Amino acid sequence: MNKQRFVVIDVETTGNSPKKGDKIIQIAAVVIENGQITERFSKYINPNKSIPAFIEQLTGISNQMVEHEQPFEAVAEEVFHLLDGAYFVAHNIHFDLGFVKYELHKAGFHLPDCEVLDTVELSRIVFPGFEGYKLTELSEELQLRHDQPHRADSDAEVTGLIFLEILEKLRQLPYPTLKQLRRLSQHFISDLTHLLDMFIYENRHTEIPGYARFSSFSVREPQSIDEHANEDGNFSFEIENWEAGNEKALSELMPGYEKREGQMMMMKEVAEAFANREHALIEAPPGIGKTIGYLIPAALFAKKSKKPVIISTYSTLLQQQILTKDLPIVQDLFPFPVTAAILKGQSHYLCLYKFEQVLHEDDDNYDAVLTKAQLLVWLTETDTGDVAELNLPSGGKLLWDRLAYDDESYKRSRNENVTGFYERAKQIAMRSDLVITNHSLLLTDEGSQKKRLPESGTFIIDEAHHFERAASEHLGKRATYIELHTKLSRIGTLKEQGLLKKMRQLFQRNSLPVDSFFELEEWIQHIQAESDAFFSSVHSFVKRRKPKEDLNRLVFKVNKESQDKSWPILTDGAERLCSMLTHLQQLFEAQSALMEKHLTSMKSRTVFLADEYQRSMKGLQQYCQTLQKLFFESEDDEAVWIEIDAKGAKNAVAIYAQPLEPGELLADQFFARKNSVVLTSATLTVEDSFQFMIERLGLGDFFPRTMRIESPFSYDKRMRVMIPKEMKSIQDTGQAEFIQDTARYIELMAKEKQPKILVLLTSHDMLKKVHQELKHLM
């Protein structure tokens, strides 16, 4: 077989299954040899059956276009010779290969003995950070022309160009990365092994610059951290001087910029709050340039004080917007450097030590293998090691939980060539003027002895209307069935490929007694059965008390009044489950004492396995403590409630407890320890007053500054509020009738030739049902 000949095939069909009578209506191919397209082939095919309307609409291929064309049998020999001795390449290989193979067989030809390459799979591997892997998405990411999507000739052409990009990307990978991909390739859909062998041979003596070696794979060589980032600059001017001197610069940097009084008011208010060491609440509506309004005074204050300003947001989307869109504008305004960094929680960052151990595990789970391949390529590109850069398969998210950074695994990771991603992120944050983080990490850091954020007394809380909720979630507790099930599944049994079986094998290899594993397995099985029964009984308990609510998500508030004669059944179940988990922990502790004596003499992969086993068992212990507190140790100042999926699994249950008023804790543990905290959002007032938010956040004793900036938009002229007079609430009608009413009123508004209507609904399920109802009405 000529390994340099690739035939990229695309077919358009009447449906999804050739065995059910669906036929090819267009077939196209491009031939790639020696890195370029050398031949093109395209034919319309008469399927001898009618093309469904939705296929015609999708592809633009009509019955009239194919009625005088030949059937597939007439081109079968040409297709056969085209494929003979070449790789069969397609985007979603199973679809195109299935149709071509079936039609060739019907025509009396057997598909040539060719290897296959799936550009969906290969794109996921070599472009692990792309947002999507459809042809249209890939062509947009790679800036390739795709003139007629869902036409075989256009799809084959763009698939061929994508495949050339894939080959070039593979060719440029460092030797260690290629070697590890080669080891994983036996599990791929694509027959990639021979291609990887070729690239490995080409790169065997090549030292590609820009990479560092971490054990068995390569990582991108980290850029040096600027040690002089916080040096003195020219800070002699104040905000007022900046307004006059740099308004022109701002208009040049921001196309369409108009001077906004609200933005200048906000800059001055933030600057005064920082200078006077006061807390402040600023309601800043959309359109005033809120982010720039606080970034400029924050940058100035950080430079003058030589201490970073911490900026906290609720959403990761806003963090990226600040760093990539707004901050560059601010940096270009000043005659001195303004540095910034994003710092997230540990679970966002890859631990290289963990990845090295997991990479070499024997694993035939496709999603896990695909994720490992993605990570190998991504590590040659990433500076941050942040999972947000990745587009992982669904099973890959489970693998990431095993690979994320934690303190214990880092202690065992000592590689002089490479600093861990999380440690590096902290180092960069320590040297930055502005540190962007999230509410959850900010609150976690306040309660932790081991600080992650740099020392600072000056904070900006953006999206501050979510700050109370974030505090409640941080201070609260939660126990779900799925969480316990996941923990138990990870440990597994002696018959499954989980941690328990692997640890028993480890004990056997080290001549340690293994009797304890049989008892542990027995108790794990008991706990799984008990948890199924317990959460099912909780589900039934809630559903019986919410029989008339036609909603999927049911919420039951737990209080003294709600604890009727059936409640003791639940507490008895919780007590049994906690007792079993406690006994399991006792068995593990006896086993752990024996294991600790031998850890120092074990190999690193064995130590990693033992660490993971211990973490999993400790996770069960923490779960037991949480369940104990939820059912038997709840406080009077806590809200406890149960949520179930009424239409989901019978054990789809989550139990929560959160403080009713987190303000007092926020006052003592956060605001009292800070010099100045500026909270800003588009919605901080109730009836034009900040008092409600001040009380909820515990700011009453601090007498914070307040500013409410008027919106630059005339809502009374640009917006209409339309209230249906006869529409009942969902509690009165049930979901089905409510959806019908909602769709009917939307239809009425649309018929009045309203401008574009934005419809917001409270769940994805309701969104789909309203959409379906509207399709019938309109």
Overview of the molecule:
- The two termini are 57 Å apart.
- Strand 2 and strand 3 form a beta hairpin.
- Helix 5 runs parallel beside helix 7, helix 21 (481-491) runs antiparallel to helix 23 and helix 24 runs antiparallel to helix 25.
- The mean pLDDT is 89.
- The chain has a seven-stranded parallel beta sheet with strand order 10-11-9-12-17-8-18, with helices on both faces. The chain has a five-stranded mixed beta sheet with strand order 3-2-1-4-5. It has a four-stranded antiparallel beta sheet with strand order 13-16-15-14.
- 49% of the residues lie in helices and 13% in strands.
- It is built from 31 helices and 18 strands.
- It has 778 residues and is of the alpha/beta class.
- Among the domains are: 5-171, Ribonuclease H-like superfamily/Ribonuclease H (Nucleotidyltransferase, domain 5); 489-659; 720-777, no CATH class.
- InterPro entries: DinG (IPR006310), DnaQ (IPR006054), Helic_SF1/SF2_ATP-bd_DinG/Rad3 (IPR014013), Helicase_ATP-bd (IPR014001), P-loop_NTPase (IPR027417), Ribonucl_H (IPR013520), RNaseH-like_sf (IPR012337), RNaseH_sf (IPR036397).
- Its EC number is 3.1.-.-.
